[in-house]
Amino acid sequence: MAIQKKYLKSKPVCKVTFVVPAEEAKEVSVVGDFNEWDPAAHPLKKQRNGNFKGTFDLQKDKSYEFKYLIDGNYTNEPEADSHRWNDHAGAENPVLEV
């Protein structure tokens, strides 16, 4: 899994690209507090190499809790900027610093 960030000089946004290797998966999306944990808001597209990929604009100077939803199962990003315990979910969430 990987996350790439590209900051724009002209806007207060960061283009964030998520790449999730999941060859056997049918659906992968990124859910988090930037999209109210809605799986339909940020679906990733399957690439020919079996990875799922998507690039989204996120407001910079913020931190976001998120997870990947792979065929209905939540998965953490091991290489996130940090991890934070979430009492509501009863689990640790990856954190993206933008």
Can you describe this structure in just a few lines?
Residues 76-98 are annotated as: Disordered. This protein is mainly beta and 98 residues long.
Descriptive report:
It is a single chain. With 98 residues, the chain is mostly beta strands. The chain has a single domain, classed as Immunoglobulins (Immunoglobulin-like), CATH 2.60.40. The protein contains no helices and nine strands. The strands form two sheets. Strands 3, 6, 7, 8 and 9 form a five-stranded antiparallel β-sheet that branches. Strands 1-2-5-4 form a four-stranded antiparallel β-sheet, with no helix packed on it. It is globular. The protein starts with a strand and ends with a strand.
Itemize the secondary structure elements and their pairings.
Blueprint: E1 2-7, E2 13-21, E3 28-32, E4 45-46, E5 51-59, E6 63-70, E7 73-75, E8 82-86, E9 91-97
Antiparallel strand pairs: 1-2, 2-5, 3-6, 4-5, 6-7, 6-9, 8-9
* % residues in beta strands: over 45%
Question: Could you name the CATH homologous superfamily?
Answer: Immunoglobulins
CATH C-level class is Mainly Beta
Count every beta strand, where a strand is a DSSP E run of 2 or more residues.
9
Largest sheet: 5 strands, antiparallel
Helix percent reads: under 10%
CATH architecture: Sandwich
